[in-house]
Amino acid sequence: NKIMIPPNISGKVKNVKSSGKYNVDTVLLTVEGKDGDHDVKLYQSWPVRIPRPYKERLLPREPLVTGIRVIDTFFPISKGGTAAIPGGFGTGKTVVQHQLAKWSDADVIVYIGCGERGNEMTEVLEEFPQLIDPRNGRPLMERTILIANTSNMPVSAREASIYTGITIAEYFRDMGYNVALMADSTSRWAEALREISGRLEEMPAEEGFPPYLASRIGEFYERAGRVNALGENKRVGSVSVIGAVSPPGGDFSEPVTTGTKRFIRCFWELDRQLANARHHPSINWLDSYSEYNSELKEWFSKNIDPDFSKFRDRVMGILTEDDNLQQIIKLVGEDVLPDNQKLIVRVANIVKVGYLQQDAFSDVDSNCPLKKQHEMLKVILKYYDRAGVLVSKGVAVSEVLDDSIVNILMRMKENISMDKFDQFKEIEKKMDSFFDSLDNKYQTVKEA
Question: Where is the ATPase F1/V1/A1 complex alpha/beta subunit nucleotide-binding domain (predicted)?
Fold first, then answer.
């Protein structure tokens, strides 16, 4: 915690306390201003509905690394960015937000339980003190701020909880920290707005929500950003806002979801079919999007690998082609497909199960660093390229899809820990040996 002069105070500092232990009401120093003396304590008072000022807003140039592969690889969010996680009941919104709170590389986490069940907040309180931050070896609870406003609390408090959380996030942003704010869920906050509006006898709009719902949602998400804080010392901080949306019945055309999409740049849509198939996180890779991909391309190229973005685009192309082929398979079956298309379907399945699917409760796979993500993509695409060359030469796809190699690709997310990336080289050697022997075998048969 850093001691900051409040934004609306300037002057000469005097009566500074020496280092020691003080309570929050202790006057640490006094600022002699034109309008009198101002006492500075260990806390600041600020109206929660008014954004805290800053010197300059900066462009998003660095990703908020979450450790979730489907997000970091395909739909990244920048530090200071905005994202929404819409999904029906039971699709895994809270689990995804807990994962983001645990493993994202933010300095401070603000978790707002707005109108949700009390047991979800209890789970955070019980689990987070036992988890260790991989960056500094300290308990994750030390960087986490919880705002518990569960469904049994007053409606007015629920409506204010969102603003309280974003103001606390801005306070730590002004210290130069990168803050990630999780709001679970903004739909319950919107319902509180609707109830307050009804009691005030205001004219209702669509589905009973107040007509100013969209502007209130916009005011909340627009307080995110990466900025230069006020003061002479250059301090760059950010607030990244990630809000869960709970549309009734999974209807994404309802007012809260449509209003949110106007103001966010990442949309991580949770799919009920994926959730029912036990595919978690159940983020739909075809309907989700991120507008930060182009802005973060340079960062990925410099810090991870120049080919990272190219690998991502190729894998997304495989998944898109697989979706088109699945329509044909539903009608006439997979047997009618040519071998090159059968290969696409099988490789897409490796990507879905071996890459996109991630166990939130695994000791190894719950948090996947970007270097590991890149190596996994590289190995999968190498398998696809080598197999595609042999299939084009007339080798049967059943020969190419060797069970031992496929199983290695499916399980490398669990079998390779963070400190053993050299094992990816061993996988590549096994693949090269297998494909070289298969190529020589068919070359010999062809010559004979």
Answer: 67-290
- For the sheet with 36-40, list strands across it: 12-14, 29-33, 36-40
Tally the C-alpha atoms within 13 A of residue 373's C-alpha that lie toward its C-beta: 28
Enclosing H/E stretch for 144: strand 144-149
Q: Which value, to the nearest 10 degrees, does the dihedral of the CA atoms of residues 93, 188, 124, 64 take?
A: 60
Domain boundaries, the chain: 1-45, 56-291, 308-447
DSSP string across 170-232: HHHHTTT-EEEEEEETHHHHHHHHHHHHHHTTPPP-GGG--TTHHHHHHHHHTT-EEEEPSSS
Report pLDDT digits (tens) over 153-210. Answer: 888 888 899 999 999 999 999 999 999 999 988 999 999 999 999 999 999 999 999 9
CATH topology for 56-291?
A: Rossmann fold (3.40.50)
Peptide bond just before 154 cis, omega within 30 deg: no
Q: What is the mean pLDDT of residues 422-432?
A: 93
Residue count of the chain = 448
Please write the tens of the pLDDT for every residue from 205-251. 999 999 999 999 999 999 999 999 998 778 999 999 999 999 988 88
CA distances in angstroms from 373 to 115, 180, 187, 412, listed in the order given: 35, 22, 33, 11
* Distance from chain centroid for Cα 271: 16
Task: Supply the CATH classification number for the domain 308-447.
Answer: 1.10.1140.10
CA distances from 290 to 187, 215, 269, 387, 437 (A): 21, 22, 11, 31, 42
The helix (run of H) or strand (run of E) holding residue 122 is: helix 118-127
By DSSP bridging, strand 144-149 and strand 108-114 are parallel
Cα–Cα distance, 363 to 298 (Å, whole number)? 31
